Amino acid sequence: MSAVTAPRAWARATTKERGQTVLYHGFMIVMVFAYIFPALWALSMSLRTDENMYAADQLIPHPITFEHYHRLFEALPELGRYFGNTLLIAVIGTAGTLLSSSMAGYALARFRFPGRGTLLATMLLTLMVPVHATLIPQYVIFRELGWLNSPLPIIVPMLFGTPFASFFFRQYFITLPGELEDAAAIDGAGPWRCFFRIIVPLSGPAYLALGLLTFVSLWNSFYVNSIYLTRQDSWVLTQALQSLIGRYTAQYGAIMAGVTLVSLPILVAYLFFQRWIVRGISMTGLAN
Amino acid sequence: MGLRKKAFGITAAAACLALLVAGCTGDSSTEDEGDDDGAATGDVEPATVRVMLWGNDADISSIKDAAAGFSTARPEITIEWESGDCGVDYAACKTLVAGGNTPDVFVMGSWNYFEAARDGVTADLTPYLEESGTTTDDFTPAIIDALTSPSDGKLYGLPMGYNIQSLFYNKDMFDAAGLDYPPADGSYTYDDLREWAAKLTLDGSGNDATAAGFDPNAIQQYGYFNFAAAPIEPGYAPVLAAFGGGILGGDARNECTADSEGTIEGFQWLQDLMWTDHSAITPQLQQEEPGYARWVRGQVAMQQGSHEQVLAVQQQNPELNYGIAALPEGPAGNATLAQIHVWVMSEASEHKDAAWEFLHYMATEGAGKQMGLIPAYQDVAQGPAFAQAEGEPEGLVEAQIDPAGWDLTFTNVDPSVVWSAVSSQDGIAPAIEDIIMNRATAAEALDGICASRIDALLDAAK
Amino acid sequence: MLPQVIGLLAFTAVPLVASLGYSFTNWDLVAPSPTFVGLDNWQHLLGDDRIPAVLWNTVRFILVGTSTLLVFSLVAALLTFTPRRFVGVYRAALFLPYVLSQIAVGVVWRWMFNSQSGPISGIWELFGGTSPDWLLDPATAMPSIAMVTTWQTIGYGMTLYVAALQGVPVSLLEAATIDGANRWQRFRNVTVPMISPTVFFLTVTSLIGAFQLFDPVVAMTSASAGPATAGGPSNSTRTIVLYMYNQMFNYNEQVSGLGYAAAIAWMLALLIFLVTAVQFLVSGRWVHYEDPTASGGRRRRRARR
């Protein structure tokens, strides 16, 4: 889009328009820089010597060292495994949420069935009761199921869909015209056939938008994981990073190196998919 | 209406189910997954023992290394390692207990050791100890005393080791200022320390804090750091004790002495260094960069800290030329704080015999080199497991081992289970913040605090 | 649908209802089972003089946090919703803080807020003020935390607003221009009503989040990296959920562990429910929903093939 048309537009632009463009980009660069300064600071901490870790003039580290990345892999030799565990939880959890929540959302959007009101109310309530209050009963259930130290306590509830995601999809599906489904129904297609053949292909952006939000929260979650995953071979990345902090000392260089490595993939994904994400959100007609 | 009734029925049934599930924890918890090949030595059945650890990566591998000998000697007992905050944070233990998933063996900090014992979470080890032939005399007396319950005389754990607050100092800075090194045995006073701190604080033009032209806004080198700036107990507690005070006193540590003369003087000493002399790291500076990190990289001349600082130097600045000395003498004498890490066994464990074998090994034969602590078993601490280990600074024995025998040395055990409330924002915390932030003098901040805040918390716990 | 219902019931509704059940019991979590105490916890809740204090802390958070989030993410969206060169990069950069883990956010912002060499204090002093101690001062600690939370969520709010702004029909804006409306009038009378559902959605969700504030407070005010010592200075950042957590694990004065914590949690849920309900009631006056079927054809469609 703009990347292709812009150079031609630039050639055609008047001096005033050019000036405005330069002004705009100048302003944006300053603002964006100020805004992401703390994040750049974290990145920069990962490249500093311990001696310079907190020096105010070290945004661009001098000297630059990759020692903390080295130390990170040395201190956590099984980093690859934690990466794998995190990826497994994030991918399956996201996929599961998308599938189930969209099905639930579809049912809530299109069908009237007994208990729909109760179900909606329950889902709303779960958003309002703080998670810590339901921690213990949940823990007891998962222990009874023998799921501790496996990704199941985190993944399985996601496979049944989350309240937030179900709402999100419900709002989205309400905005889709019903005519296509009606036509399919006349051709003898059942509701689920309708859903997978017609609705899902139409909803790519919504899936992408919600997928990203879910993925980010699973990728960065710490507290819940630290309760269920106590065997070191089942750890996720955030737990591994936390283990670099002692009671009276901490290896901040290595922690920031870890944070950089952990955040980078998501950021790149956002950069590539944002167009669809924005479109997905814009079509939900939020909170009707 | 019908629907509503039904919904209520489901809700009520679910509530009953959940209460039931929560109520019958423990009967179906761990299954016996014993090895059937390894022949049993002694009278212990083959068993798998779940051991939960906390700490950073180095702490955890140090314990696994120390346990290697046990696995060789007792192949019939399989150790299953876990990591979790239980022991450093009692809330994490409670989650495990409530969920019926307590590990067989774990590590308690002295700060919540008695809370777990009171709650019946940890098992009484006295009978096991009697049978084993090991006696309490085999351990450092002050440490084993601290772990012996004042109410029933029982022992609910064996020490993994302890750490002691000492003075770490930068030799190069002392040399440059023409000062003698602090005597390793602690034969100097808090007045001396204050004077050195001022002389070791330098501004941009090289003036020290006692000089007329000293500019407190351009300090390049600080004299002293104490974790009181954070503020945490291991920082201020030794100072208060040396001045004859403390926030809690009495044998059971459940009498408020927070507004006593000694407490006020101790806190005032800390405030004076920060705000009158400008020789100590303030909370603002601590927030900018932790004081210990400044000491490690060579911006601060002295800090009060535990043995963990030795490891921090090895990791972050091996070049640092430093020494270590026992903490100074205050008006009441020499005092320091010992924190103990304790091997404990779950009361709910189904493999108590095997768990005891492991715990006993770790506290005796396997003692030393665990979490960088001073071992409390016999004289192990004097040997290669601690005092003669590589990379240790000189003065280690006088500064880190001998003070355990001082009269005023105390352990932050909490036999009355009041400390978490007393140290919280409902208790002493706001007053301490006012002192270290220089919003009030120590006398003002602590005036009548026992009557107005602490006593009610102590009464509530009784 | 059935598997969903069963799953939701098993993993969400059962713990939820169980926690309501616990609010009528006394359980310190280590006793073998809870003891039934009837309405004791609820009675105690009504007389607990700390509740107004922690609620007030939450309100202070909302006053700064929610308002700045609504405004700043709209500004960010207005600056980046028009497709042109590099906006994708700008948006990705503004989204960056949203993907950072709490560990990094806590460490970095503690440094950012230090009054010695911290950039925030530097900017403050540039305008001639004496910098406050931010996180160390009871007056500024909560607003500071609110600013950090806003900083972290702007990217999310911006993404929602960009989507809404791109959905504003060009025809309406053109019609307004023909009618002689200036830029501000067009924004005020066309754009704002058209994006009001997004403002509403963000308000509702950010208020729910604000009432449940916990992690950032622990990350930025705790002396020992745990919730037990968080909430300072001078109790100025202790939130409802932090108070609930401390009661649950008996860090503070003991009331009844999980039982009392559950009562607090349900009181909070009730409060959130009321606040949300009021928002929905009032929303009729200012939130404009376009009829999706009627406007579908008029929406500005962007060529993205």
From TrEMBL, chain A:
The listed locations are:
Cell membrane
- Which keywords fit this entry according to its UniProt record? Cell membrane, Membrane, Transmembrane, Transmembrane helix, Transport
Question: Per the UniProt entry, what are the Gene Ontology biological process annotations, in alphabetical order?
Answer: transmembrane transport
Bilayer-crossing residues are 21-43, 87-108, 120-142, 154-173, 194-219, 252-273
Q: Where is the ABC transmembrane type-1 domain?
A: 83-273
* Topology of this chain in the membrane: Multi-pass membrane protein
> Hey, which family's this protein in?
Belongs to the binding-protein-dependent transport system permease family.
What name does UniProt use for this protein?
Sugar ABC transporter permease
Q: Which organism is it from?
A: Actinotalea fermentans
Automatic annotation (TrEMBL), chain B:
UniProt KW keywords: Signal, Transport
**Signal peptide limits:** 1-21
Q: Where in the cell is it found?
A: Cell envelope
User: Mind telling me which InterPro entries this protein's record contains?
Assistant: Bact_solute-bd_prot1, SBP
CC per GO annotation: cell envelope
Regarding protein family, the annotation reads: Belongs to the bacterial solute-binding protein 1 family.
Name of the protein in question: Sugar ABC transporter substrate-binding protein
Record organism:
Actinotalea fermentans
TrEMBL record, chain C:
User: Matching Pfam families, A to Z?
Assistant: BPD_transp_1
The listed locations are: Cell membrane
Which taxonomic lineage is given here?
Answer: Bacteria, Bacillati, Actinomycetota, Actinomycetes, Micrococcales
Task: Please list the residue ranges annotated as the ABC transmembrane type-1 domain.
Answer: 55-279
Q: Name one GO cellular component term.
A: plasma membrane
Organism of origin = Actinotalea fermentans
Tell me a GO biological process for this protein.
transmembrane transport
Put simply, this protein is called: ABC transporter permease
**TM region positions:** 61-81, 93-112, 154-173, 194-214, 258-282
Keyword annotations: Cell membrane, Membrane, Transmembrane, Transmembrane helix, Transport
- Asked if the record carries the keyword Acyltransferase, the reply is no
Q: Which PANTHER family match?
A: ABC TRANSPORTER PERMEASE PROTEIN, INNER MEMBRANE ABC TRANSPORTER PERMEASE PROTEIN YCJO
Q: What is its main location?
A: membrane
* Topology in membrane: Multi-pass membrane protein
What InterPro entries does this protein map onto? Answer: ABC_transporter_permease, MetI-like, MetI-like_sf
The record's comment on protein family reads: Belongs to the binding-protein-dependent transport system permease family.
